[in-house]
Amino acid sequence: MKPILQIENISKRFRISHEMQPYLNFRDRLIQLFRKSTISSEEFWALKSITFTVEPGESIGIIGKNGAGKSTLLKILSKITPPTSGKIISRGRIASLLEVGTGFHPELTGRENIFLNGSILGMKRTEIQQKFDEIVDFSGVEKFLDTPLKHYSSGMQLRLAFAVAAFLEPEILIIDEVLAVGDAEFQKKCMGKMGEVSRSGRTILFVSHNMNAVNSLCTKCIYLEHGEIVKYAPTQEVINSYLTSENSGGSRKDWSNIARPIGDDAARLLRARLVNKAGESIEYVQIDQEAGIEYYFEVYKDSKNPIPNIHLLTNSGEYAFVSSVNPKGQFNKAGIYKAIMWIPGNFLNQGIYIAGLALSSMNPVTVHFFEKDAIVFEVIEDVDKRDAEYNQKIPGVIRPKLNWTIDKN
């Protein structure tokens, strides 16, 4: 069987201007056409020689940092923008959900947009009518079905767009991070539907920063960096490479000089690192050694008892634990502070962990900052040190050494 998608040496070039231009009217534009341009510009390659194939029924995740080229690749696959070079061979009907309202007309009603999108996908009116009730039921916009789309909220537009894309049964479904716009309940509903679509034998390309969603839905994954494919392999293998790469985070971060500080008008996050008991920076944790997650933050003004807290997750998005400490007024005064959470040895299991760093106040609850993917580190184990003759990974998020009592009856 031939691949449903063949992407061969796709590259995309943009030209970036380095001079801000004032608003020009039509006459100014005409004059500018006959003048020699003095505006400097440079070429920017958003994608460079991207090549891969997708088999029918595969669910492919696409991950990478912002600016890696993920959305540009999906727009090319969706035929929204052409590539600068290379070619794409598609052997199936493609439906895409890249931005809220993509492919919808704001002046048409929800009902009319359903039929418009179906027609764009090449479906007959009778085919659309067969799926119409399911689309409306899933989207939950029945009351507003005959209202022009321009009066819909972004959430309503998203629900309708996803329902149309999923229920009109394209052979290839392309979805960007747009699902992050919806509420938690709707995201869960969408993930369930995408799983159903995948099990039915249709192909999915899914871009997301949510590693748990990618891991649960996708069989294979593409890791993009600076417009190039770093890795294309089974999902868990690619996620591990992405999370442990220097470019995606690592065990040391510094936000002290960024243009837009991480925080609010009361406090900001400065820097963080993984440390050993001696206070030295480390890149990974030995399973039987104590390690600390250290972070510095600045309190701008006298405040009411801000509380440091850390959210530790596995690389699949599962919560390992949340830990906080009540400093009882220690951070009330303006200044720079350091907080360290110590993880005991023989507590976490082997694997990759992601620490989210936060500072919150109570009564009312106020989150001054919460950097979700602040620190990424790996817990490793020397299996030769085990008491038992078993060298495979033991299941579980934690791996504590507990006290046992054994008696002979």
Question: Any overview of this molecule?
Answer:
It is globular, with a radius of gyration of 26 Å. The strands form 4 sheets. Strands 5-6-7-3-8-9 form a 6-stranded mixed beta sheet, sandwiched between helices. Strands 10, 11, 12, 14 and 17 form a 5-stranded antiparallel beta sheet that branches. It is α/β, with parallel strands linked by helices. It has 2 domains: about 5-245, P-loop containing nucleotide triphosphate hydrolases (Rossmann fold), CATH 3.40.50.300; about 255-385, abc- transporter (atp binding component) like domain (Coagulation Factor XIII, Chain A, domain 1), CATH 2.70.50.60. A hairpin with a 4-residue loop joins strand 15 (about 305-315) and strand 16. It starts with a strand and ends in a 29-residue tail after the last strand. The model has no long low-confidence stretch (mean pLDDT about 85). Helix 3 (about 110-120) packs across helix 4 and helix 4 (about 125-140) crosses helix 5. It contains 8 helices and 19 strands.
